[in-house]
Amino acid sequence: MKTRAALLVVMAGLTLAPERTEAQQRIVFGLVSNIAVAHAPLYFAKELGYWAEEKLDIDVVVFNGSGVLLPQVVSKRVQVGFPNPDPLIISRQPGRDPLPLKFFFNVIRENVWEFAVLASSPVRTLQDMRGRKLGVGAITFGNIPLTRAMFRELGIEVGKDLELVPTGLGAPAFLALREGRVDALNLFDTLHATLQQQGTAIRRLKMPQKYLDLFSNGLIAHDEVLRDNPRLLAAFGRVLAKGIVACNVNRPACVRAFWKAHPNLKPAGDEAQAVANQVQLLNARFDKYLAFPRGDGPRWGEFPREGWQNMVQAMHDGGQIQTTAIDIASLYTNALVPAMNNFDPAEVIKAARAAN
User: CB–CB of 62/260 below 8 Å?
Assistant: First the structure.
C-alpha cells in the first residue's frame, strides 16, 4: 500500500504507481486528513492478507478536507473517498448542481468531531465561545457546515460572533491552543486524545445530543463507478470490514501492522509504552466504528435512513441548507451491504488473535 501527497497525484495524473499484475485491481483511496493510527484497520487487513485475497492494490492519497477530496472523486481520479457527509447534502439542495456521488459504507457511525479547551480556560460551554476564536483543521474540512449549524442554533454566527482560525492538524493546532492564539479546537477525537497524551490538560465542551448522534466519515464513490464496478467497491468494503473486526480483538497487533506500513510514524523510545499509547488513541475512535443499534448484530457499512434525515434536519435548523426537501435516497446506497458482509467473522477473529 502506498501513501502519496495529493498534489503529486493530480500533477502526475496517477501515473506514478509501480507496475501491477493484470490480476490486481487498483483503487485510489482518498483521505481527508493525514495518515494516523485511526486508519490502522486498513493496514491490519493488509497484514492479514485480505487485500491479496481480494486482489486489490491500494494507493492512499491524503487531501486537505472533504472540500478538496470530493472534486477528485467526481473526476474519478479517486475511486473511493472517505469524507464527511455534509458537502454532499449541501450539493443536493434544489437549484444546485448535485455531485454525482453516493456513500456506500457507513464507517464512523457516530460523530468524531469535538470541541476542546485548555483545562484552565474560562470557556465552560459552547455559548461561552461568543467573541472568541475557534481553531479548525481547514475551512475546507467537511465538519465546518455542522459546526456553523451548531453555533447558529445557539445564536452565534460564525464569521460575525465567532472567528474560525485554520490551524492545520497535530502540532500546529496544539501549539495554537497552548499559546492562546485560539480559545478552543474543533478537531476529531484521536487528535484531542493525542494532545492529552502529550501532557496538555484539556476539557471537552458538551455538544447537543443530536449532533453527537450523527455519523461521520464514510466511503463514497462516483455514481458511474457504483454502477459499472460494484464488485470492486464491495471488495474494498469487505476488506475494510474485516480489518475493523480484526483490529477490535487485537489492537496491539493492529498498531504494529500500521507501523510496519508506516515506520516513520512509529514513536521513538520504549516500544511497549508506544504500543499502549497508540492503543489508547485507537480506543478513542473504536466505539464509533461499532455503534450499531442496540440488540442488532453488525451489518458492516449499512446506513440507517433516519440518520440521513437527522443530518439534513440538523443542517437545516442551523441554517446551512435552506430546505429539508433533500432526496435522501440520492445520498447513499445500501446495495453493497450484503456483499460487504459476505465473510466469516469467526475466521477473521481467529486470524487476528494469532497475529503478533
Answer: no
One-letter amino acid for residue 26 of the chain: R
The DSSP code sequence of 156-215 is: --BTTTBEEEE--SSHHHHHHHHTTSSSEEE-BHHHHHHHHHTT--EEEPP--HHHHTS-
pLDDT digits (tens, 9 = 90+) for 174-210: 999 999 999 999 998 889 999 999 999 999 999 988 8
Q: Are residues 105 and 149 in the same domain?
A: no
Q: 154 and 224, same structural domain?
A: no
Q: Of 30, 45, 79, which Cα lies nearest the Cα of 231?
A: 79
Task: Examine the domain organization and report whether 155 and 99 are in the same domain.
Answer: no
Q: How many domains does the chain have?
A: 2
pLDDT, mean over the chain: 91
Q: Pick the range with the lowest mean pLDDT from 146-155, 226-235, 291-300.
A: 291-300
> Rounded to the nearest 10 degrees, what angle do helices 189-197 and 271-289 cross at?
150
What is this structure's pTM?
A: 0.83
Q: Are residues 289 and 247 in the same domain?
A: yes
**Residue range 319-342, pLDDT digits in tens:** 889 999 999 999 999 999 999 999
Positions of E strands within the chain: 2-5, 25-31, 56-62, 80-81, 101-106, 116-118, 133-136, 163-166, 184-186, 202-204, 218-222
Q: What is the CATH number of the domain that holds 269?
A: 3.40.190.10
* Range among 30-39, 315-324, 337-346 with highest mean pLDDT value: 337-346
Closest CA to 119 of 206, 208, 196: 196
CA torsion sign for 256, 244, 52, 237 is negative
Same domain, 50 and 138: no
